[in-house]
Amino acid sequence: MNEEKRSRKILDRLREEYPDAHGSSLDYDGPIQLLVATILSAQSTDEKVNEITSKLFKRYSSAKDFAEADRDELESLIYSSGYYRNKAKWIQETCERIVKDHNSKVPREIDDLVKLEGVGRKTANIVLSDSFGTNQGIPIDTHVKRLTKRLGFSEAENRNKMEQKLMDLIPRDRWYEYATLLVSHGKRFCKARKPKCDECVINDLCPTAFSHG
């Protein structure tokens, strides 16, 4: 079975397994809030970020709000996300640039997004897919990277190289679906330390199934 056919079968089975797996699990209202929440999610969990933003977004909600925020107050509100000083700096500088260069609107092109502070391709792809419904790439987080390697689709350590290989393999209209389904499967079955290969719905399509038991 060639890679294209195998990848399609994997996606079809995972879609049946996770019919509700679509989009980010972050809580937000609009592109700016999603961008901020995604920056906060680095080295943190979505659950923790949602806890933080439930208070944060009551205080600041627009790009202008964040651009003009008191840095100390912003840091205190996001402290529990980890790396809070860097994240506060990235959020504020990114929002200042959005206000100045993009008329207070989150840019809709990945080349513009990745020029912002603290915004890599993963964050940009999530914002573009969830906020604007456009697939310009595949967000590669730790789950997607781990499962992509286990499935034998790419051995690249560099996430940009892995993303490019997947973009050549997966149909464009399923790029974001690939990421969201692998995240769901990674959290539930294909865990880093002890994957549940015997319970996995795609174990017959995975070249490394049962080798981690």
Automatic annotation (TrEMBL):
The residues that the entry says bind [4Fe-4S] cluster are C190, C197, C200, C206
**Do you know which Gene3D superfamilies this protein is assigned to?**
Helix-hairpin-Helix base-excision DNA repair enzymes (C-terminal), Hypothetical protein, domain 2
Q: Does the keyword Thylakoid apply?
A: no
Show where the HhH-GPD domain sits.
Answer: 40-188
Q: Which UniProt keywords apply?
A: 4Fe-4S, DNA damage, DNA repair, DNA-binding, Endonuclease, Glycosidase, Hydrolase, Iron, Iron-sulfur, Lyase, Metal-binding, Nuclease
Report the top EC class in one word.
lyase
| Alphabetical list of InterPro entries matching this protein | DNA_glycosylase (IPR011257), Endonuclease3_FeS-loop_motif (IPR003651), Endouclease-III_FeS-bd_BS (IPR004035), HhH-GPD_domain (IPR003265), HhH_base_excis_C (IPR023170), HhH_motif (IPR000445), Nth (IPR005759)
Can you quote the record's cofactor note? Binds 1 [4Fe-4S] cluster.
Question: Membrane: present as a keyword of the record?
Answer: no
Per the entry, what this protein does is:
DNA repair enzyme that has both DNA N-glycosylase activity and AP-lyase activity. The DNA N-glycosylase activity releases various damaged pyrimidines from DNA by cleaving the N-glycosidic bond, leaving an AP (apurinic/apyrimidinic) site. The AP-lyase activity cleaves the phosphodiester bond 3' to the AP site by a beta-elimination, leaving a 3'-terminal unsaturated sugar and a product with a terminal 5'-phosphate.
Member of which family?
Belongs to the Nth/MutY family.
* Protein name in the entry: Endonuclease III
Organism of origin = candidate division MSBL1 archaeon SCGC-AAA259A05
Which taxonomic lineage does the organism of this UniProt entry have? Archaea, Methanobacteriati, Methanobacteriota, candidate division MSBL1
